[in-house]
Amino acid sequence: MKRFFILFSLVFSLLLGSMNVFAADTEKIETNKNENASTKITISFKSGAGNYNVNGKNVKAETSVTVNGKVFVPINVITDALSATLNIDKKKKTAAINYNGVEIKLTDKKAEAIIAGKKVKMDAAPYIKNSSIMAPVSFLADTFGADITNDKGQVTFVKEIANPNSIKDFSTLIKNTTKNKIGDSYYNWSMSLPKDLELSYRDFNGSENAFTAQDESYYVGVYIYDKEKDTSLDSIVDFLLEYTKDYTLIDYGKKTNSDGIDYVEFIYKDDEQTYQSRYFLSDNKEYSFILTTKNDEAYIDDKYQNIINSFKFKFDNDGSAEDLSDVSKEGFRKYQDTRMKWSINMHPDWEEYKDDKIQNKVVFNGNNGAFFSLEVYSLDSGETLDSITHKPKGSPAVNNSSWYPSFSSKAFASSFG
User: Is residue 49 included in any domain, yes or no?
Assistant: First the structure.
């Protein structure tokens, strides 16, 4: 229980506050999970110029241009920023983009793209300019689930990625869905999905999910953790009574939902927000559903109550709900690092721990103290697998940390480029 409330406080302080990232000791990976795992990629440029600002860095590329009111950019500026792969066939005059397993095919002077095997009409045809393929930035924004503004020719392309290490782009998935429900088939839950709700955070193993309204008027959190042996609905009530002492407590108690499932509900507020939280227990999991609003009377507002009442311990596989689960048929989650160019199949319940300041190391933590640690290093000239494994202590391939022993993947990483 205590772990959940600490994480809950961190998640919502990040969502509602200044979005500061916890500064961990750079000598080791912080042992708390990184609660700000989402990534924001911003590309801004002036139409008619060849300079692009990508997250504060100046990038030079083919000059952008406005044709019949449509702003065209070289697609490599966007794909490079998103770590997508781009292959251009100059003879066939085509471009193939691969982004998180989805292939997008474009053809010179043809206003039709093929996305994941389906033909999609474009608002304007791409074309070749020198060695680049130019495409409407509006089409690229729609395809990649980004937001775009154009203020008198100053274009800003903003893409938020809920978890950059997953093979699934959850943010784009929700932005492009036509379904009114969302959930997770692995953890077996679902809820309604209002049109103004976006996924702002999801951890690697899918146990923490935070949704934000577009106007930031309300937030929804869904959290799933392993149930501790001594946890009961009564112990949750006792803990929350202590936890909410510094808030104005509006209502609390044990209740039963329309499916006959017992839960604990607490409604409390501070000077700025109202919180309505529900806590459920299964045989081995704790489920928490939390609605945070700037509305003082959200707990009697039908709009918000319809959302919170929609939460179910059920995921229908009939296609009526968008599935956030990225667990494969074989029972693994694939973790990828597009910058370091490696990936791994991981147990679906294992948690990811890393420090943003240490780009070459990540730890996955499981039950009963089990863990897997991976470090990536560049190969020195002439190094082989044999020379690495026989290096003396103190070398980068040998971990001297007292925090966790680790498996160094120096040679392993070389096979992925």
Answer: no
Q: What is the pLDDT of residues 311-346, one digit of tens each?
A: 998 898 888 999 999 999 999 999 998 878 889 999
Q: Which helix (H) or strand (E) holds 90?
A: none
DSSP 70: E
Q: Is the pLDDT of residue 207 over 60?
A: yes
How many domains, in total, are found in the chain? 3
Q: Give per-residue pLDDT as tens, 99-112.
A: 887 899 999 999 99
Domain residue limits at 370: 333-414
Q: What is the pTM of this model?
A: 0.77
Q: Which of 124, 144, 160 is the last residue of a domain?
A: 160
The verdict on 196 and 337 lying in the same domain is: no
pLDDT in tens, 218-245: 999 999 999 998 999 999 999 999 999 9
- What is the DSSP annotation of 167-228? SS-HHHHHHH---SEEEETTTTEEEE--TTEEEEEE-TTSSEEEEEETTSSEEEEEEEEEPP
Residue 341 belongs to a domain: yes
Mean pLDDT on 8-25: 33
Amino acid of residue 120: V
Q: Name the DSSP letter for residue 32.
A: S
Give yes or no for a contact between 337 and 188, defined as CB atoms under 8 angstroms apart.
Answer: no
Say if residue 166 is in the same domain as residue 314.
yes
Same domain flag for 175 and 277: yes
Report the Cα 104 to chain-centroid distance in Å.
Answer: 21
pLDDT at position 12 over 50: no
Domain boundary among 111, 145, 160: 160
DSSP-assigned letters across all residues of 213-277: ETTSSEEEEEEEEEPPTT--HHHHHHHHHHHTTTSEEEEEEEEE-TTS-EEEEEEEE-SS-EEEE
297 and 339 share a domain? no
